[in-house]
């Protein structure tokens, strides 16, 4: 497994917003599972990294949470606010530009 944790740390907000944008609403463990699944286990998002990020996004007004009953237990679901939907579009454009710049600096050819 690659140790991408430092690289991933700087993209955590964008990743969480993108997952919520794509899935409408998710709970914390579901987010960690999805990251692991999408990266074939190369990136494992810990609760210690995720929940502070979720709380900051909520404090910043980019996401909201709601408690729902799932079976006989409560789950805290997160979803994007209108501001969050605007923010993810900006972050994805910025990130795409950043990746292109890094590829140029490192002379990496994108694999198509």
UniProtKB/TrEMBL annotation:
<dbReference type="GO" id="GO:0003677">
    <property type="term" value="F:DNA binding"/>
</dbReference>
<dbReference type="InterPro" id="IPR005149">
    <property type="entry name" value="Tscrpt_reg_PadR_N"/>
</dbReference>
<protein>
    <submittedName>
        <fullName>DNA-binding transcriptional regulator, PadR family</fullName>
    </submittedName>
</protein>
<feature type="domain" description="Transcription regulator PadR N-terminal">
    <location>
        <begin position="16"/>
        <end position="89"/>
    </location>
</feature>
<keyword id="KW-0238">DNA-binding</keyword>
<dbReference type="Pfam" id="PF03551">
    <property type="entry name" value="PadR"/>
</dbReference>
<dbReference type="InterPro" id="IPR052509">
    <property type="entry name" value="Metal_resp_DNA-bind_regulator"/>
</dbReference>
<dbReference type="InterPro" id="IPR036388">
    <property type="entry name" value="WH-like_DNA-bd_sf"/>
</dbReference>
<dbReference type="InterPro" id="IPR036390">
    <property type="entry name" value="WH_DNA-bd_sf"/>
</dbReference>
């Amino acid at each position: 497994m690659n140790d991408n944790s430092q690289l991933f740390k700087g993209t955590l907000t964008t990743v969480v917003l993108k997952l919520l944008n794509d899935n409408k609403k998710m709970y914390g463990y579901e987010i960690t599972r999805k990251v692991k699944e999408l990266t074939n286990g190369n990136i494992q998002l810990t609760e210690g990294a995720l929940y502070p990020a979720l709380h900051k996004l909520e404090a910043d007004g980019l996401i909201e949470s709601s408690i729902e009953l799932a079976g006989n237990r409560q789950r805290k679901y997160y979803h994007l606010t209108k501001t969050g939907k605007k923010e993810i579009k900006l972050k994805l454009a910025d990130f795409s530009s950043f990746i292109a710049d890094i590829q140029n600096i490192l002379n990496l050819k994108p694999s198509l």
